[in-house]
Amino acid sequence: MTDVNLTLEDADALVMRVLRTNGCDEANARAVADTVMAAERDICHSHGIFRIPGYVASLRSGKVNGKAAPTVKQIAPGALQVDADRGFAPLALERGRQPLIDLAREQGIAALAVRDMHHFAALWVEVEPIAEAGLAAFAWTAATPMVAPAGGTKPLFGTNPMAFAWPRKDGSSMAFDMATAATARGEIMIMARDGKQAPPGAGIDAEGNPTTDPNAILAGAQLPFGGYKGSAISMMIELLVGALIGDKLSFEAGEADIKDGGPPPGGELIIAIDPNRFGDPDGWLAHGEKLFDAMKAQEGLRLPGERRHQNRLKTPSEGIFLPKSLYDTVCGLEA
Amino acid sequence: MTDVNLTLEDADALVMRVLRTNGCDEANARAVADTVMAAERDICHSHGIFRIPGYVASLRSGKVNGKAAPTVKQIAPGALQVDADRGFAPLALERGRQPLIDLAREQGIAALAVRDMHHFAALWVEVEPIAEAGLAAFAWTAATPMVAPAGGTKPLFGTNPMAFAWPRKDGSSMAFDMATAATARGEIMIMARDGKQAPPGAGIDAEGNPTTDPNAILAGAQLPFGGYKGSAISMMIELLVGALIGDKLSFEAGEADIKDGGPPPGGELIIAIDPNRFGDPDGWLAHGEKLFDAMKAQEGLRLPGERRHQNRLKTPSEGIFLPKSLYDTVCGLEA
Predict the structure, then answer these.
(1) In B, which residues are within 8 Å of A156 by CB distance?
(2) Which of A73, A149, A279, A321 has a 20 to 30 A CA-CA distance from B178?
(3) Cβ neighbours of residue B200 under 8 Å, at least 6 residues apart?
(4) ipTM, 2 dp
């Protein structure tokens, strides 16, 4: 059975209809659809329409508030907090974004803590607009316990992604976004769906033995990337989005979650920095480009996110390709 | 030939004499010795007295100003900048530390950019005191080009360490400090000195071929930890301590350095965050401990830095053990 080819506009309209029908108000549907469609536009399937059944499950179970009205407040001269009102992350992040950008420009550096949200997306979508506004940005979030710390055998950390974005001279951005798990959960889910093997080092089974069976990993534990180093970074993210901002550690989220197939409850921390307020206001942009040029001078080297930016040029004319089974599933969620 | 056993006090006195004799004023000698002796106290040889010949080489060549008078200024409501006056990093960092702590408490989050310095130390020494003051802290610095980006063949990045520290309930801290290179440069230098092999994945030779010969790696390129993920983090650190703060990228530092065996010129960025200004002022400390307890409940798991803290309890009574050849070399630098 062939894939289904949809224009970005038609795919967006489908996503919007499904979200509205299942209890999202217009603002939440629009924010979630923008996030999902940014992934589809860049051909990042694991965070695109593939996630819609999970979003819908959490609306139908009542776990997530489809009509959430996130509110932003300033909690310190350099820090903002968004109460996400038990909604999906995208609207909360959208509401906090411009205030964060404004505050970072004023202060030099500022933080945005988002609490009481449900996150099911890629982080690059969230830091790219901040970099396109001329700021450097970090983002971190946690999840449910799926990753054993290096040296351990039981899930404790989330896949705990971190992202970083930096402004480019053409007004675009360089952004990377990595799970601190060796392999993104979404990719392992897709490997399981497609009957493929996971790469060695991706995880261990429920008894703690190494395995490349994606279903065994989903039932056991993923492993951090880079051994003890990636494990330390994952732990840092737990501290930042759990203890620091006053939301849930991954294992607390796992205990609180009703496991309806959608995103668990949790928080997110974003830090934005305005290079214009630091040491070289006139030169920093060209200085970053000098690094990128030196990287690209090495044959075969690509910048992080370069493939996404190339895909972004193609999908507006070529559309996207969805597996027929996924397309049928999502269409079935309209009812 | 056996190692030489010295008390911490005698080792400190030796280091101070060597630094003074070679052109450090009292403040700079004290700050460098404190940093070197913190590493010795925790039995981190690669950043301890092993570095003294390099420090001295840079004083003798005139590259580093042993009488540097670092100055701190506020460059934005949330950001400080230290002009290190072409000195070693420790005094510049010491001068910036309390102002950074004060500013982070006031603002919620604050950054310290140190420029025009020469860094030859471990970063955990620099973030632990900030965490002991009750704040979370990040630190990043770059170096000379020694690491090929993932997918590349030529040195471009430094070993670019990052550190993070978090306050503990007993007033101490959890700190990790990792080179984004697969293996710390100092460790490869020690492997070369001791005639040992480097682990697979540590680096490539001058022709770009994988090797475990530490001398071939020192002449070729190290590799980042964790493949493309570690490489992206290393790139991020270049942007932060080069372009953002207006100091040198690693390859610029390599061009500017006179290669006297001591530390290259460069910058450092530290970010401090006050959890008391975020979402859970009364609960964050216990919340962090809850994570640490869950980690330690997995058999065999240690927290980052735990071994250093154990060593710290031993060396005041047992002293430290220096290879005789290193001890003789350092004693020879008194003349």
Answers:
(1) 294-295, 298
(2) A279
(3) B210, B212
(4) 0.96
